[in-house]
Design goal:
Layout: E1 14-18, H1 23-34, E2 38-43, H2 46-58, E3 63-67, H3 73-87, E4 92-95, H4 111-139, E5 144-148, H5 152-155, H6 163-181, E6 187-193, H7 198-206, H8 208-217, H9 226-238, E7 249-252
Parallel strand pairs: 1-2, 1-4, 2-3, 4-5, 5-6, 6-7
Length: 260
């Protein structure tokens, strides 16, 4: 059952969430839909995106899947065009999609890895921002761009000499666009989550000690839930309540990176 309009601060707004076929992206999409937004699941494969859209509709909310490859500018442009055709506007663009395991050592890095990571994180952010901008500008003070970075992009984590810098580049882009787009009332922010995604769950199953170590270093004593803990923060950033928050990186990690 959907909640009354008064408790749905994103009612009447439309959002695109890339990489929403699972994990953090799925949690963000569900949280935005619960807030009343029309949500486009921009997934690389319909096999992952359609079930998320179905689950959102089963709750009584609005969602559709549009197959999108964030490394391809034309694919991103087509997703935005289809969104406008379906819903008449775009208020919230969330770029979450990322492919690849972040752990690697410098001696194992090649140009293919740099290309893959930069295309999904940095170029994907650029494509999403560029395609969404005319519609976010039209939305005025309701316009929102959120880029999903990582604590590694803030602190520079060990064994992540490529993942960390491409995630840091997203933060730099968000700061620049926050300044550039501020005159239109558009806010631009990043979130840096630590959440129990399918990849993280798989790592925990292979090595249960990893979960013990992570929860031990986290003051709240648990790993974040993609919808309740991460998606809720994005829903806040997308709402009118966050209209004066821009150019920031919100670290959603239960306190495990308190030095950031």
């Amino acid at each position: 059952m959907t909640e009354p309009l008064a408790s749905r601060p994103l009612a009447g707004r439309t959002a695109i969430v890339t990489g929403a076929g699972q994990g953090v992206g799925e949690g963000i999409a569900k949280a935005l839909a619960a807030g009343g937004a029309n949500v486009v699941i921009a997934a690389r494969r319909a096999a992952t995106g359609d079930p998320v859209a179905d689950a959102i509709r089963a709750r009584g909310d609005v969602a559709e899947c549009i197959v999108t490859d964030v490394t391809d500018e034309e694919s991103v442009n087509a997703c935005v065009a289809a969104t406008i055709a379906s819903f008449g506007g775009l208020d919230i663009m969330v770029h979450n999609a990322f492919r690849g395991s972040p752990n690697h050592r410098l001696e194992d890095v090649d140009l293919a890895l740099w290309s893959n990571y930069s295309r999904t994180a940095v170029w994907g952010s650029y494509f999403c921002a560029r395609a969404a901008f005319p519609y976010l500008r039209a939305a005025g003070p309701r316009g929102r761009l959120v880029l999903v970075t990582s604590p590694s992009g803030v602190e520079g984590s060990v064994n992540m000499p490529v993942y960390s810098p491409v995630k840091a580049a997203q933060r730099a882009m968000a700061k620049s666009l926050a300044r550039e787009w501020g005159e239109y009332g558009i806010t631009v922010n990043c979130i840096a989550p630590v959440a129990e995604t399918p990849a993280v769950v798989g790592a925990f199953e292979r090595n249960p000690v990893l979960k013990e170590r992570l929860t031990a270093r986290t003051p709240l004593g648990r790993v974040g839930d993609p919808e309740r803990d991460i998606g809720a923060v994005v829903a806040f950033l997308a709402s009118d309540a966050a209209g004066y928050v821009t150019g920031q990186t919100i670290v959603c990690d239960g306190g495990s990176f308190t030095g950031l």
